Every structure is written in structure tokens, then in C-alpha cells.
Amino acid sequence: MAILELKNIFFQKDEKRIIDGVSLSIEQGVVYAVVGPNGAGKSTLANIIMGLDGYREIKGDILFKDESIADLSVTDRAKKGITLAWQEPSRFEGLKVKIYLKSSGKNDIRDAINRVGLNPDDYLERAVDSTLSGGERKRLEIASILTMKPKLVILDEPDSGIDIEAINKIFETIKYLKESGTTVILITHSLDVLKKAEYAFILCNGKIIDKGKTSEIGKYFIERCMSCRHKNVPDENKIK
Asked: 0.85 cut: is pTM over it?
């Protein structure tokens, strides 16, 4: 059963078309990836699904559980169970981790922190500010998502700016989310991240140019690109 459907989505900013007629269907409880070169529109597509300010002026429709959400605010979409983890997690000067997580959800925050590989006793009293590394903030953002128990999670470049230990914990969390029945969309240009998905879409110049099982879409990285109009190719440092 499709939990999310995008129907012929067009979006432009500053008179430049960024998303160009995207249609896709996301099944419940499945892990998907959206891959493509930098500037292809991947993060923009994530922002459109989440309904962030500046990204709701679209043509087309977005259905969540067969209901149009195109006119809903980001808050209303979050209430329906949609959440987005940004490539660069936010800082909240003066806000302690325990308050940050409690404000996200009512479930066991200690268990959520443990699941992302951090010791709750070391972090609950810490501030969510510049004293935390990018990897720590990303793990805590994923922990906050776990406390929400969302129906659909979008992770934008989950491996960006973090070390191997942190990304392995995030990969474990992706598996846990799937086992819990949560649908996951991974926005990435990394083959390692792609491998954690079951199905994937290639986005280029705002268009879906291919879709299928990850074993098939992985050729995008192996062949160092697919036929499209975009001048960029996959980052060589991401090809493993």
C-alpha cells in the first residue's frame, strides 16, 4: 500500500525550475533512496514533501495515505507522522539535550540515545549547541526522530560530516525504523547509503530518470553516471 504519492510535481525558485514533473509512489514500511548528483533537486524534493516554508508553492499534488497534504503546513504534516532530518542538524543554543528530546516525543529518550550509540548519562545535561560535534548532533537528531515514532522519515545525506562509527549506528537505526514499520527515504549520493535501501530513484535536473531495486540503481555509481542532461557526476570519494 502506498503511504506517499507525488503526482506530477513542478517547483521553481527564482524563475528556475528545480523539480520538473516528478511522480513517484512510496510503499509503507519500505526503505527507499533518492540519488543523483549535487544540484539535481534531491534536498528540494525532501523539503517539498515536508512542506517547509518556501517549498509549498508547487504544481501537482502530494498524497499521504490517500489524502492530499499539498496545502498543509510543516507542523500539520509532522502531526500526521512525517519528519525530516536535515543534512546539517540544527543547533539550539541554551537548550539541553533532555529537553530537546522530550519536546520531540514522549517515548523513552534514554533508549533512543542508546540506539544511536551514545551514553545518555553523558548527554542528557549537555546543550544542543556548538560544543557538540556535527556527528553528535546528527545522532541526537536521529534519536529525537526515534522518540516520535513517525510513519515516514526522510534522512537528507545521513552520512554527511560524520565518522564511520556514527554512520554505522545510523545504519542500524535505519534498520530498526524499518523493522518498526516506519517508511524511510534516504536522500544521498553515496553508494554505501544506497545499499541500505530496497528501492531507489535517480533524480537528475529535477526529473526522475530511472527507478528500481538498489542493485540496479547502483550502476549509477559503478558507471560514474547515467544518461541525463546534468553536468555533474557522482563524487569519486563516495564511490566504494
From this structure: yes
